[in-house]
Amino acid sequence: MRLISLFTWFFVALLAQFGGATKLIESNALSLCQDSNNFTATYFSVTFTPANRSLAFAFDGVAAISGKVKAELVLTAYGYTALRKELDPCEMGLAGLCPMQTGPIDVPRANLDLPESVVSQIPSIAYTVPDLDANVRIYINSTDTGESISCLEARLSNGQTVYQKGVGWTTAVISGLGLTASAITSGLGHSNTAAHVAANALSLFGFMQSQALFGMVAVHMPPIVESWTQNFQWSMGIIRVGFLQTICTWYQRSTGGTPSTVLSELSTTSVQVLKRSVDPSLALMKRAAEPLLKREAQSQKATQKTTTVRGIKRVGFEAGIEETNIFLTGLIFFVFFVAVIMIIVAIFKGVCELLAKNGKMNSDKFSDFRNGWKVVARGILFRLTLIGFPQMVVLCLWELTQRDSVAEIILAIIMIVSMVAALGWASVKVIRLAKRSITMHRNPAYILYSDPTCLNKWGFLYVQYRATAYYFVIPVLVYILVKGMFIGLSQPAPIVQTVAMVIIEAAMLIAVSVLRPWMDKKTNIYNITIQAINFLNAIFLLFFAQVFNQPGLVTGVMGVVFFVYNAVFALVLLILVLIASIYAIVSKNPDTRYQPMRDDRGSFIKSQTQLTTELDALGATARGDAKGSAYNSSPFEDDDSFSSGNGASVGRQNLEPPHSATSPHNATGGVPVSPVDPSVPLFPSDNRGPPPSYNGMRSPSPVPRGYNASPFQRAQNNASPWQRGAGYDH
């Protein structure tokens, strides 16, 4: 409860900062809202402070208009027209605008005092709501004819935003803590706890990636939605590092590409803004979602070239990354992340060996990891590949449409093909092992969990699911691949992206709700809720894309609602993962917090280093764990593991004497069966009965129930690793 109270206080304090700042409304970007070159602005700044009712503004521009004009100001907030007012430059005493003359216009900083009647029309919420969705539009009309000569539009901001670096750091640290806690508890032998913590941490990370992917959809979204999803772009490798951008630009030039200069041109404009005492970094962020303007001033004609950023380009621009560096930045961070984790694993192995050699650590601590650390390292490498799969699918496919350079295209093809091939091959391997286990032992959990090499190498694909749902990794990979294809390849078609996202998320929600593939009820609720939120977010995208042509006020309000329920849900997930991680690390026996799995996986999980009695040795021999086999299918496979697919158990069965025609073993029509009956005490299960049978048969036990297989009695506090499953006291 104290931890929850702490997080609640932190969340309230985060929201309180929005109300504690100075109230103001400002804009530093101006764009055309009418197809006309009669007027452009090379610099624009306006700030309204309600405390003293002052409106400060200044701009430099080029006009191709002459004569007296009037301006009509329209203020829109969340799609609602809050203010409409006609302004006469002559009455306001604005030099250069009364009358307007062709050529450059320089309006120095001026201040206007607005009447209380105007200020009172602005709701107080406009000063406190983060990422204000408001803009002001100015129509310049001819005084003589009343015809609209030009139209200018500026987005307004109150200086508050939900895009905070602290949010990204907090989510990253808690996700990393969850994965670290699962690794530590797994090394200490608490496999049940490790599976639950890892499943929840990976689901949390997947939710963050989903939030980032929604932000990459090329739909015009409310500012608060854009800022919120920007908090999670770190999970896609969109992280700005100064020297890294220099390296990316150099690499692109060296390989025949042409780097983008959008940010460099904007920084030049910011230097001009800096001369007028405006923070250039603030100006850069305020223009993040605005059209990027390239202007060329002439004495008699105003010209303007507009470049619009959206989707993945907008995400990169808000992060301060040139659009031609987005792919390479994400790729470098993924490779760097994998390299760092693998180095940490190697260092941990060396430290453990050094401590054990010097007597600073018990020799049996982390013994499974130390004895088979190469297999564990390969399993970790596969898991990291799965974690980075959504990121690389989107960025690699998007790079194929951008073609920044020949070398980057080749890198994108190599990465996407290698990752799809590796994960696809691993998935097929798991399915083959599970089917072999069903054929031989009538239970997919037998081989998947009894063989340490199989569990450590391929377990990342199936441990979070129940044993009978081993196949569900295939739908998950297809879901990620298809979703990434639409986001990466359909940037020019936002409506297509949005409709596809709704269909994909709906199909996945139906699948997980019907199959409920995860390991237990709580984990199913956890993940189905995440998928329901993803589907709801996809529905909101339909409204943001104006598919239903709803009023602007509806879109603005839905943007705020999108932020609120996603922020609350993300906070709940963070708290759950943090509590589970801390409990797993500090508790002496964290497995007591979780119920045994219904698939009896705990009965099959074993440790080669803890086979200390004759009963354990007999069980190992009966399972066929001895090294050597009748044949090896490939010189590249492991020799002593079911996961190698070398058919060791099948080869040993051929040495068994043939059964009579009346033997129950022949009732299956010659299908190979396990050399050991799962009903004997070597394969314990809880009171629900033995592991499930897939052909409705069970061989009778060749050993009487009361027979004691070993003269040695195990002490109560030294339970066999075979007695870690359901039905045994811990």
TrEMBL record:
Signal recorded as keyword: yes
Start and end residues of each stretch annotated as Disordered: 624-730
Cited InterPro entries: TRP_C, TRP_Flc/Pkd2-like, TRP_N
Keyword Nucleotide-binding: no
Keywords: Membrane, Signal, Transmembrane, Transmembrane helix
Biased composition (Polar residues): 710-721
Protein localization: Membrane
Topology in the lipid bilayer: Multi-pass membrane protein
GO CC, any one term: membrane
SMART domains found in the cross-reference section: TRP_N (SM01320)
Chain intervals with Low complexity compositional bias: 671-680
Domain ML-like as annotated: residue spans: 23-163
One of the GO BP terms on file: transmembrane transport
Signal peptide (from-to): 1-21
Domain of life: Eukaryota
Spans traversing the lipid bilayer: 326-348, 380-400, 406-428, 469-489, 495-515, 527-548, 560-586
Alphabetical list of PANTHER family matching this protein: FLAVIN CARRIER PROTEIN 2, INTEGRAL MEMBRANE PROTEIN (AFU_ORTHOLOGUE AFUA_7G01610)
Family classification: Belongs to the transient receptor potential (TRP) ion channel family.
Protein name: ML-like domain-containing protein
